[in-house]
Amino acid sequence: MASVKIPLVQMTDLPPVCVCCGQPATQMRRQEFRVSDVLTAAFLASAAALGFLAWAERSITVALPVCDDHRRRGRRSNRTLLWGMLLTVLFGVGAYVGSQFDSPAANYLAVIAMFTFIATLVIGMHEVNDGLAVKTLTGESVILTGVNRKFASAVQSGATARTATRH
Fold it and tell me: Which of 8, 22, 38, 57 is deepest in the core (most CB within 10 A)?
């Protein structure tokens, strides 16, 4: 995966390359990214230290080019959650059946089921945005991480072509 710096003026003119896999994009997907920076964290910490209840959040909504396979956000996370929950249920059933026969394996299976459940939730939540994240948001550009290398090179070549035509 790569990262790419996209000028905000170019956000409406992204190349038709899927941001997730690099295949030709067939549609645009609107996606909201929450940006947590040091200033927001400092504001929240100072408000909490002074006894105030405050919430500060910056976000940006971007229309990203995607292929048919990535038209819905979080498909990978849905599969992870499905298979992880299936494994959790299987380990849980194994623990229940083992406990009916006073098997010492029942305790181990119960612990494995619990860790499988926790790991599934953590991994699934991490994958919900298909690995995409906003690293930096400024007044002129946004740095998007987790993009496909083909998308990053297409954005960079498009930006250099626009710069060359202006001069």
Answer: 22
The owner of tokens 């498009």 is 158
90-130 pLDDT, tens per residue?
999 999 999 999 888 999 999 999 999 999 988 887 766 66
**Number of separate domains in the chain:** 2
Distance between CA atoms of 113 and 90, rounded to whole angstroms?
8
> Residue 60: helix, strand or coil by DSSP?
strand
Q: What secondary structure letter does DSSP report for 16?
A: S
Domain span at residue 94? 76-125
Residues 33 and 109 in one domain: no
Backbone angles phi, psi at 39, to 5 degrees: -65, -45
Same-domain check for residues 88 and 63: no
| pLDDT tens digits, one per residue of 132-145 | 777 777 778 888 88
